[in-house]
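Chain A, query sequence.
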Amino acid sequence: MKINTVITYFIFSVWGGLLIMGGLTLISPDWLVELSHPGKNVEAISIKNAGNTYLKSNKYNEAIQQYTKALKIVPDLKSAIANLAIAYQKTGDYNKAIISFDHLLTLEPEYPGVIYYNLGEIYEKIGQPKKALESYLVATHTSAFPEKAYQKAGHIYMNQKEWDIAIINFKLAIENRLTIENSYKGMLLTYQKAYADTTKKYQEIDDILKTQSYLSRLSEYDESIINKQLYREVNLAKTYNNIGYCLAMQVKYKEAKDYLIIALKIYPSYTEAKNNLKIVESQLAE
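Chain A, predicted structure.
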């Protein structure tokens, strides 16, 4: 299958799943596992797939049972470990989720950014912002789609009143937002991870990424339609609003106003941005 065909197929189906809980079986593709242990892995993968069915139906305890059973057969089945961690996370058993995610990281998973992002969310929920921030920052460097991780890191810095570094992270979130260019690049990076770095396919993708020749391929798509799907107005408006808020807290009201106006151009009914703009304008009038 041609790379371009694969990216076309995945560009709407995978990119979002990589950034949220429930990116099922994206870690260690089953066909790679079957090649290494063709006998017992077939049974383990079948059991793991049954667990996936339960997980998708929100039957988390049943999913945990299936993943645990699969891992007794093949202890290093990465996709089972990943989905077991997600199931624990969904049930609120955060300690077991952390243990499972940490164990998975020792096995050099194909998508560490997904794991670190989920760890960040867990640490936030259990009131450990320092560890959450550490996880989100690692996710920004290891994910093909780092926008949400930058947003999360920005929020933590903002809550800690570290305005400058919060702004940096929010701006990086904007820079890495899911435009058609960033989505295509992210999917190339994701697709590349299915291959060893010594293979011809890996090198082919690497050449495309280095030369940015994929940019010329974007003309094959209706950019306006794709960007409409990828352009999440509310999230982008919130990021601009957050930058405006941070600037206002630094008494940089003129710059703050500029960002708040952009937030409202993107999402005109955004109440928080409206309120922040009124406060900033009142300060400028004094």
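Residues 40-56 form the longest helix (17 residues). DSSP finds 17 helices and no strands in the chain.
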